[in-house]
Amino acid sequence: xSKPGDRAPRRALIVAGMKSGSGKTVVxxxxxxxxxxxxxxxxxxxxxxxxxxxxxxxxxxxxPSITLDGFAMPIxxxxxxxxxxxxxxLVAEGTMGVFDGxxxxxxxxxxxxxxLDWPILLVVEASGAAQTIAALAHGIAxxxxxxxxxxxxxxxxxxxxxxxMIAAGFARIGMPLLGLVPTDERLALPSRHLGLVQxxxxxxxxxxxxxxxxVVAACCDLEAIRAGMAPIDDAPLxxxxxxxxxxxxxxxxxxxxSFLYPHLLDDWRRAGAEIAFFSPLADEALPSGTDACxxxxxxxxxxxxxxxxxxxFLDALRRFECPIxxxxxxxxxxxxxxxxxDGVTHAMAGLLPIETSFARRKLHLGYRKATWxxxxxxxxxxTTSIGxxxxxxxxxxxxxxxxxxxxxxxxxxxxxxxxxxxxxTGTFFHLxx
Length: 433
Fold this sequence. Notes:
Blueprint lengths: L10 E7 L6 H14 L4 E6 L4 H10 L4 E3 L6 H10 L4 E9 L11 H8 L3 E6 L6 H10 L7 E9 L2 H14 L3 E6 L8 E2 L2 E2 L8 H15 L2 H6 L2 E2 L16 E5 L4 E3 L2 H9 L3 E5 L13 E4 L1 E2 L5 H6 L1 H9 L4 E4 L1 H6 L2 E3 L5 E3 L6 E4 L6 E9 L11 E8 L2 E5 L5 E5 L4 E5 L1 E3 L2 E4 L2 E2 L2
Parallel strand pairs: 1-4, 1-5, 2-3, 2-4, 5-6, 6-7, 11-13, 11-14, 14-16, 16-26, 17-19
Antiparallel strand pairs: 1-10, 8-9, 12-15, 17-18, 19-22, 20-21, 20-23, 21-27, 23-24, 25-26
Helix pairs in contact: 1-2, 1-7, 5-6
């Protein structure tokens, strides 16, 4: 029997798709906002490595979205993060297709769903097919090792006739069809080279999400979706093996520097560290009393001219006598120069002997394991950290000392990566665990 003050039972499901681009994010944030309107306290989660989608979850729910990564995190960590999350209902978003992960195993949405015993709400993109969509959904639900599928939402339905044809297919397989979402301009979100434009950069993000929720609420069976959620099991939050890089950490945070996982900040705070945010785009110096600086990834290539002109920020970096670490975009800013998409070169902090270019684009994408060659602010030399890369910029000059030996998610050896110059370190590698 529950006692006064006991936490209400929490429930969850995962919105998963057949592939990237199926509309998972739009359906997820529409459901999150629509369920919140219906009186639930809702939070979000993202399966796999991603910074942009969780920002939309937070905008839709008003609560932080947690990252649950089946490749980078032990299952005990995932269970603890899920159990400690906010909201009585957790609507998580999968990554790519349901079973897509590392070729050697791990990282797929299905892995998390099975490990946590959370059901899948399948999102299927309808263009170019009708009854066949049900056959594809049936295949996913009956694939070996598949998680439980409570039903499907079919997205981008072209007409009422198209919807009837789709429904006829689902009637044959007995899978609940929980929504037919039409092609609708209200569901469009702007995108660019790393995915959607960040919610934090969209002044009317709340209005867009409201419009999406209007469509989802009108076209989907919210009661059945809510009833299909599964309990979230209690689990302790496991301690992180990554130490805080300092006692009072200056963390860059604005539209150019926003790619940092909240669970890392939470880990540092639990270890006794204090986080002091500042904005390089606003030409702010590092906050006083800090003994470490962390420059996350983001979009410095889109703001290179403005950053190059921000002397207060750059001078403060150069004068800082404590450890500085840059990830991806932060790494680029610590170098000598960034070449933007138009081929214009902008001088940066000059703390690492590298130059990077966004004009000479090449996609770098995937999980990485970094074994640190020397002491890091957050790890001992020789230890291995797990994370990922996702960027188009390339290093065009690197005269520095390599920072880490690298392998990809399948264990294949990659070129050494990153750069070190005394107290300053940086790499395109994004730290997860």
